[in-house]
Specification:
- By secondary structure, this protein is α/β, with parallel strands linked by helices.
- An eight-stranded mixed beta sheet has the order 1-2-4-3-5-6-7-8, with helices on both faces.
- The longest helix is centred in the N-terminal third of the chain and has 15 residues.
């Protein structure tokens, strides 16, 4: 991946160009401007709006590949299957823009959506849900920690799909069995994850930073109600579930769901996929739940 990330991006762009025309009427392009930088945001409207939540989506791709174009089919599916407005963020990618550039983009767009949604081209965002898959879920978790640390309003909920939460994916040293059992023969490999981290965080001393590896955080209190969805045959399975348990131990409301037989990246599969259908059933239930921890009157 360290050598071929450019090729991967070009293939993704070609594939997106083939599938893109089907979704041209489903979204509109806007930008969120902060600190002199304009971050592209693609806003998807469901055909039938069933919820007032705005899902702020950070795509996967190891912080190195993926963009709002290649994730347009997944974002359109998310809008249709949840009945929510989905805002997909085109954050900066490594290695051209290493940590914390992409994270800062996601944080800035989140603040705008929470405080002044019209600046991101969205009329109203009373309930904001952070959603990310893989590296995007890592970014969502980090954004939630940053908002808490700054004493700002946090998102109402977060949905973390097979998140990266730890810094070590070497089967010889990782504390997680899934890294050893599922890191070679399946969708995502140990080597690929480590390559992504090398590109995203070139300085090894920063990889234990909680904003890179949220499981390293010593304080996980004050986080939004969280849904952690993992894939059984994914090397990230155990660390994602461990993060969910750590959030719960810190006093947060957490639901953890493992999709049996699923591979990493299933959120981008076609709508008839069993894994994708199961995940959205759980997501929709989560969005409809009334939080058990109410704010004091």
């Amino acid at each position: 991946m360290r050598e071929d990330y450019g090729k991967v991006r070009r293939v993704q762009q070609r594939l997106a160009a083939l599938t893109g025309p089907r979704y041209r009427t489903a979204y509109r392009q806007t930008v969120a401007e902060v600190a002199g930088r304009a971050v592209p945001v693609r806003v998807f409207q469901p055909n039938r709006k069933r919820r007032d939540d705005v899902l702020l989506f950070f795509h996967g791709g190891g912080w190195v590949t993926g963009d709002i174009e290649s994730y347009t089919p997944a974002s359109a599916t998310m809008a249709e299957l949840t009945g929510c407005v989905v805002a997909s963020v085109d954050y900066r990618l490594a290695p051209e823009y290493p940590f914390p550039a992409g994270l800062q983009d996601c944080y800035n767009v989140t603040r705008i959506l929470l405080e002044e949604p019209h600046r991101a081209g969205i009329e109203s965002a009373e309930k904001v849900v952070l959603v990310g898959d893989s590296a995007g879920a890592n970014l969502a978790a980090a954004v939630s920690l940053m908002l808490r640390d700054e004493g700002l309003r946090t998102a109402d909920r977060q949905v973390l799909l097979y998140p990266v939460t730890h810094w070590d994916h070497d089967p010889k040293t990782s504390p997680f069995a899934s890294v050893r059992h599922h890191g070679e023969a399946y969708r995502l490999t140990n080597t690929e994850v480590q390559d992504y981290l090398d590109l995203y965080v070139p300085d090894p001393s920063q990889r234990r930073n909680p904003l890179v590896a949220p499981l390293m955080a010593t304080d996980l209190s004050g986080q939004p109600a969280s849904l952690v969805i993992t894939a059984e045959l994914d090397l990230l399975c155990d660390e994602g579930e461990e993060y969910g348990r750590a959030l719960r131990a810190a006093g947060n409301e957490v639901r953890i769901h493992r999709v049996d037989g699923a591979l990493h990246g299933f959120i981008a599969l076609p709508r008839f996929s069993r894994s994708l259908r199961e995940a959205y059933e759980v997501i929709n239930d989560f969005l409809d739940e009334v939080p058990s921890q109410q704010e004091p009157a």
